[in-house]
Amino acid sequence: MKPSRNRCDLYACHGALKVVLQLLKLAAMEKSMENIDIDVDIYSDSSYAFKILNENEKIVQWGLSVDSISDFVNIYRNDGNCPTALANPDLLFPLCKTASRIVHQDVKDINGKNLCLGNDIRINFLHCSDILRDGSIHGLKERAKKTAMWQYKKC
């Protein structure tokens, strides 16, 4: 496997996406999400992860259009942002599948019934410098406050 910082950064982004999927599933089981638009922003301090994941529509499309890692490697080779060997397709492929499941709402409850995770779901992978671009941490504080209030209202 040869763990590297790049592999760990990509794995962390996928881990964050899986947490979001679980939170959306829980929310969808508690109440109707049909009229709620969802914006998922996942921040990383990794330039590597940002370079690979910054084209959000491609990530979702790749996850939708392929069913095997070999098919994924072939598509990524023609359409990806870096050489295939550097993209860690063994990690990128499941991340794309998870993103596609969320956006296209390919999620079922424990009874096998499709869950509506939201009206319009958008996933954005961003670099943490986007928050601090204006030289302050105001954006970060606002996002943290918004997240805390969301969690408080949920309980």
Set out the fold topology.
Layout: H1 5-30, E1 38-44, H2 47-53, H3 56-65, H4 69-79, H5 89-103, E2 121-127, H6 138-154
Parallel strand pairs: 1-2
Helix pairs in contact: 1-5, 3-5
Give a structural overview.
- The protein has 155 residues and is mainly α.
- It has one domain (5-154).
- The protein is built from six helices and two strands; from the N terminus they run H-E-H-H-H-H-E-H.
- The chain has helices at 5-30, 47-53, 56-65, 69-79, 89-103, 138-154, and strands at 38-44, 121-127.
- A two-stranded parallel sheet has the order 1-2.
- The termini are far apart.
Short synopsis of the structure:
With 155 residues, the protein is mainly α. It has helices at 5-30, 47-53, 56-65, 69-79, 89-103, 138-154; strands at 38-44, 121-127.
Question: Helix and strand succession?
Answer: HEHHHHEH
Number of domains: 1
Instruction: Quote the average pLDDT.
Output: 85
What level of helicity do the residues show? Answer: 55-70%
Poorly predicted parts: none
Spatial gap, N to C terminus: 40 Å
Strand order in the largest sheet:
1-2
Question: How many helices does DSSP assign?
Answer: 6
Give the strand tally.
2
Oligomer, anyone?
A: single chain
As a whole number of angstroms, the C-alpha radius of gyration is 16 Å
Largest sheet: 2 strands, parallel
What's the overall geometry?
globular
Q: From the helix content, strand content and strand pairing, which structural class follows?
A: mainly alpha
Residue share in β-strands: 5-15%
